[in-house]
Amino acid sequence: MSDILDDDLELRVGTLQLTSDNANADNRRDNASDAKSSNKNKNQLNANPSVLSGADSLSSSTSSFADARAEGISNPEPRNASEPERTVYPRYDVPFNRENIKDFFTFRKGVVENAIQECITALLFPEDGEYLGSWLLTEITLWDNEKERIVLLTSRLVMTIKYDFIAMKQLDFKKTYLDDLDTIVIGELVYPPSSLVPRLNGIATGVTTVVKDCVIDRLCRRPTGNEEAKLFDPKYFEPRERNLRGVRLMWNKGEPLSLKTAWNPFSQDVPFLTFASHPIFWHKDGTLEERSMYDMETFAQKLQRAIESMPSSACCIHHSPIVIQSYLGVTSLLHNKISLGFFKVRGKFSF
């Protein structure tokens, strides 16, 4: 009888131990599955923020600032046919529309090419170094004013040229030597947290949209029910950041601006230059390569290569937001809204 009890006890202990081993194995498998899922989520969070967050992205990848638009085209992710197409690169607030952009003198065929060739012939000399490229970009001043500028890049310098595209003549130019640069920043153009510019920009854009798309359209045709509600859509008046990338060239050696320079809108001693893509970049017909003349990204890439090829250069290249120190910006808002920094047709006048 005792032998039977002992055998039964051993059988129950073995069954209990086997059940415990199976439970432990299941727990290990669950933990491994959870770990893989956690690692997968973590990898997604650590991915390039410019790809994941769209217009909310404030910086590009630190390993390379190769144009993510090209990466999105060459390496498309599989998606369902029912899913809408998503923007891969940080979205731009496309400046102007197709009709307004035709008022720019630089939109006319051959104007920019002839102006650049004239500047190269008249202003570049052998001692300026090897010619690397030329662009038509938007310069953003210390006071947040946008200005149309021709930019020439050589192995020794960056030349910024103010050019009259109506009279087709040079007005002014400035040379910045690459040896003098100590910092280059590539990233989103942002305002300080306490700036009122995004709020004012949202109000101005909302008023313009309501007047143009709603009020004027009502005078021409009878609106539908959806257009009735659009007149009072509060989204038109939401704060608007720039949602625009730029590059800043600095030679201030880390020192802050003096009060004399910071509060003088006519100062020529500002120790940095800030460029963004020209508005024509978004409206010019052709491929990205054909529109590269107006693209800040192409300029930034060639500038980086020029800096890296200089063994004596101590310039640091950062990928981070570019802060525009504008807090109220009423004058710059008016200046940029009516494009005073660009040569264009304005009704019966051109300036």
Automatic annotation (TrEMBL):
Under PROSITE patterns, the record lists:
HSAC2
GO CC terms: cytoplasm
Read off the PANTHER family from this record: HSAC2 DOMAIN-CONTAINING PROTEIN, TUMOR PROTEIN P63-REGULATED GENE 1-LIKE PROTEIN
Query: What name goes with this protein?
Result: Tumor protein p63-regulated gene 1-like protein isoform X6
Organism of this sequence = Papilio xuthus
The entry sums up its family as follows:
Belongs to the TPRG1 family.
**Occurrences of domain HSac2 (ranges):** 106-250
Transmembrane intervals: none
Q: Where in the sequence does UniProt note compositional bias of the Low complexity kind?
A: 50-67
The primary gene name is LOC106127022
What domain of life does the UniProt record list for this protein's source? Eukaryota
Q: Which Pfam families match?
A: hSac2
